[in-house]
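Q: Here's a chain of 429 amino acids. Please give me its 3D structure as tokens.
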Amino acid sequence: MNSQQLIALDQAHVWHPYSSMDNPPPAYPVASAEGVRLKLTDGTELIDGMASWWCAIHGYNHPHLNQAMQSQIADMSHVMFGGITHAPAVTLAKRLVDITPLGLEKVFFSDSGSVAVEVAIKMALQYWHARGQAGKDRLLTVRNGYHGDTFGAMAVCDPVNGMHTLFKGVLPQHYFCPAPPAGFDRPLADSDLDELEAQLKKNHKNIAGLILEPIVQGAGGMRFYSPAWLTAAAALCKQYDVLLIADEIATGFGRSGALFACDHAQVQPDIMCLGKAITGGTMSFAATLTTSHIATTISRGKANCFMHGPTFMGNPLACAVANASLDLLEENDWQAQVQGIEQDLQQHLAPAAAQSYVEDVRVMGAIGVVQVKEAVDLARMQKLLVAEGVWVRPFGKLVYVMPPYVTSAEDLKQLCEGMLRALEAYFSA
């Protein structure tokens, strides 16, 4: 099929994420991907600034990742994880325990980030039930948060500014407090956690855990906040006997400049969710880690086990490529890669701050954000970006990049300059 035939059939039958099937905008057919470039079926090449929604940190078609999958598929692509184990899963679990914050010693595998959050919520609820405190059955979280699209995850996303207001009436009702004040380097003020502490003081007997995205709030606004705030929030959780759940699905594996965003604050969560970059962007996979104490408490409760078990849990193919992705993180000096990207993003996005239509420009690690004053029309903006030879997927007022770590300085310059030219064309039209 040629490009037009693919687009026509796509529009007729394929429902894309967060899209309308009533006069849907055309999608861009990709024929192949290599390194940091997407090649469309019409021959157009685009520098990918999204790392396929933040997960393809090593770029595309990487020989080490391909070899890991090819080797594993020759043995077995999948076996059930109930009553069976295998080396890729055991090896991966041990490696995740070794690199995540101290105390996280038990690993539960699942298929996607949203499910990892569901697992974390169930762990927290089942833990308190096992301790004879079944009344601790609600979560506390902060505004501007995003944790996924399944029902449990939707319930802890921002109910006003988030994407799930349509379901508000049928979702479990949790506790919300204001988002952390913006600014990674912002000094902590005495009043910054007043409402968080007030919620904990008033409702801690009903709160199982505080769930949040450490340091970087992703799809809820691409906001950065200070490690000092996170440190103080973690201390309040301990004071009021509430579990701390760190959603590191977007930030894990180096994206924020630390291997895990919790590391910026030296915080040790009780439960941590991982996903996206865990397989280097090759397969959907996720993990939820917790402490030995929580795991043992759950296991000694009424059910005598944790009540969850995905069909494709511990998929050997995904585990094998996740191990290969960890190899690349170590071998490629991910810290140097991310620091280089951060410096280049700061340099190349800085000119946007002078534009009248720009509200803010901010960079952290391998994340660069241009926040404009009015929400952009996605289809129109996307067309301008593709014309510049770059793949960037804006949402709302945010035009941002989270490129693969292997993006060269030259490609990053082209990516940023193309994004800024597209913005200028959009707002000058």
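Q: Can you summarize the key feature?
A: The longest strand covers residues 104-110.
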